[in-house]
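Input:
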Amino acid sequence: MIPLSWYLIFAACLFCIGLFGVLARKNAVTILMGIELMLNAVNINLLAFWRYLWAPKADGQVFVAIVIVAAAAEAAVGLALIISAYRRRQTVNANEMDMLKG
Amino acid sequence: MTGLQVVFLLIGAVTLASAVMVVAAKRVMHAALWLILALVGVAAAYATLEASFFAVMQVAVYVGAIAILIIFAAMLTRRSMEDDPARLNKGWPAALLAAGGLLAGLVYLFSRWTGFSSPARALPEGGENIAALGLALTAPEGFLVPFEVASLLLVAAMIGAIYVAGDLRK
Amino acid sequence: MTTESLIWLLPLPPLAAFLLIVLFTNRSKALSHSLALAGAGTAWLGSMIVFFRAVGQHDLAENPIHISFNWLPMVDEWFKMGVMIDPAGAVTLFFVAWTVLMIFIYSVGYHNFGQPKGDHDRPGLPPHGATVGDKKHAHKVPSVEPMYSRFFALISLFAFAMFLLVVSDNLLLFYIAWEIMGFCSYALIGFWYGKESARNAGVKAFLTTRVGDVFMLLGIVGLYSATGSLNFHEVLGNPDTLAKLAAADSGVLGLSLAGLLGILLFIGTVGKSAQFPLHVWLPDAMEGPTPVSAMIHAAAMVSAGVFLAVRTFPLVSAGRVGEELTSAMMVMAFIGAFTALFASTIALAQNDIKRVLAYSTIAQLGYMIAALGVGAYVAAVFHLVTHAFFKALLFLGSGSVIHGMEHGVLHTGEKIDPQDMYNMGGLKDKMPVTFWTFVAGGLALSGFPLVTAGFWSKDEILTGAFGGHHWWVFGTLAVSALLTAFYTMRQITLTFLGKPRTKSAEHASENKTVMVGPLVVLAVFAVGAGWAGIPEKFPLLGGLIPNWFGEFVGSMLHEEAHHAESIVPLLTSLVVSLGGLYLGYMVYRDVKQGSPDPLARMGFLYKVFKYKYGIDELYHDVFIRPAVWISEVFTYRWIDKGLLDGIIEGIGKVALTLGRLVRNYIDIPLWNEGMTDGVGGGVRRTGDALRPVQSGRVQMYMVLAVLLVLVASVLFLFFAA
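Output:
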């Protein structure tokens, strides 16, 4: 049997790699990929805790389903925003998207 | 070490390695392809948790839909970054510090937590587990309202994405 | 259909109307207002059915009509969302449904549906009128509102929020509805966003009420953590919980926990119902279209505030012994009575017909709060109901007057303010229906004896204050009632009686049925609503009609209200109302065009009233100017531009100088281009690397945020463990 801690550390690593991608990559599309990695890490955590502490009740899984829905919505809107910004400013560089700067 | 543990370690290694490649790859297209591998790895991890429904969902939604969406976006915006050789921004050491610090903090917290000894719970045989999830999502005393709200969110996101990405001025 | 599911469905028709108008029908004015009217009409019909079913149930207070579903799983139980109708909710539903429907119908006429498009009308500005006829016989007529559909969409959303608020069974749903209403009021007060004053008024209303809302949220959170539930019936209808809360010490100013939570929630009321010191937004809210003023000041917004105070009354009065007031009640009584007097004096000196009504609203709300403060619960609810009817009537009436005056202004082409009462006069014969309904509303407001609803509810409040031996509340309210009668008569005299003071007033004309019809309906209630609550012990009339209202709403309280018998409050209310009306008429009956206000002879005092005690200016100086100064001068110019940019640019400059020095005196002479990218460049890169701290780049901010959270958690673990 795999110990619960393995899943948690696996998820923590995945989360931090994704976080680094979000924080450090220039390209907005790659930033979005980082966010997807982070969301996946969260889902692993949720499922692991469900499996070890909550099964066979279904509640824990419901959260995963909702997170997947939210992730799908986020990806669709995020990519649409990137394409819209690209069309207007010919760039997907997050550093150059600073129109809100005062 | 049991066979399952070996399998899990393999899955974990592949997934984490591809995740690293996602954030490290020079070209966005390569990063997107590595992302697909990482997502498949996560699906396999779901499978080891006996969450077969979500393993399938992961492949269908992430690998099938979101990854394709990202590849399209990468192709549509490819021209803009070609003349910029640096893939990381100037603040990347700080970002590394932040991400590394978070990982260290989490590992430290795990090392102090004592709940790891609990064994996995028993799951009923056959498809009972998935049927229970289905009931929980659709029963009024369960999560019907969040479920419906989530579907509303999807529709809103779809309309919003079309509105934002479509060039309405033409 | 069962009553429970009917209550569920009540708020939905206006919401559906809002969505349909926004998404589909906003290009068609006729379709949009049909949808809005259908929504309001359906909600009205449902409300009436619910109301009469609720009235038919005997033990409604102990067993309110209630249905709920599991919403959020908490640690060991569910947080439930649901709807509930108890006696207080039922009577509120009754007046909300009627006034909302009347306001909707009236809006069709007020926004000139069916009139031609204006010559120069633009969205965001009030319509300026259209020219019709050929060149020889061209004349100006009112033009249709350019954003007609938008108006009906927003006001439908407003109605949805109000219905939701009335039927909600817990404070969280209540708060959600409350905030939707806050947004709608912002959007509707600033409806004519092309005018700067309207924009500012919208922002002012939003921010001022927000101050109260923050405290209210604190109260909600506190109540939940203290009792584990936000359900009205479970928490506030449960004597054991209340006793426990009243016994617990909050540790703040010696208040009990119940008192502290009650006061926090009451501050929400202070903001929403425009009580002193958060009253400043309400007069400015007159910038919106008149139906909105009626909606805000009668049917919805301010009533919601008092309704909250009514709902939380058990909390405020928890731990009360006999006639003695709890400290929270003292606060309410003081603020209410003070606001009533304070706003009445300001209303004396206003010339804008709507502003007088605005201040009178503040004063009447003060009345209700004071009534709750002295424990006259039934009287407060009673006054809430009657006030909603007659104040909606007065606002719609004043809108009708303004509309008629605008007609005259368009006709004559004069450049005058159609809202200034000194430009009116003699409108009695030009606009008879408006006149008679306005008189009905005005008499109700001033408490004209026996006939009008306002008399009965005010009399009960005075009786309550007198019976509890709260002399200062009683005295303040009596003086305020005198002033109310005085300025109401001043308004009626200046507007309708005497001779026209301008040409426009001579050419004013009565409005269409769609506008005056609702006035007549509301006038019926403004007079008749009071007969439902005539006290049994009233001389002669008492007992002729059963005091249905007192029994129905009074059943909400666990202990019986008992009044000391006395003729003094009755005599007082007779004297102040008749005396005020008489004085008002005598002073203002022949004011000529251009002559100053007779009250101006009071000199300094008049100026104080006229300029509203300078509260607006005070707030502007004390809150707004420092806030602007901090953001503009301190943060932006000093910290941002001076300090941070200075440091960063300084580092850059030092680095540059250093680099240049190094290059010129060490690099070139010594190593002779040996170290092209040497110390200078390194330091300069450091400077460059520091610059992005103020870059507006999201990723940089996120890195900082994560690092800060890390540092904070390390500190927390270090010190907590």
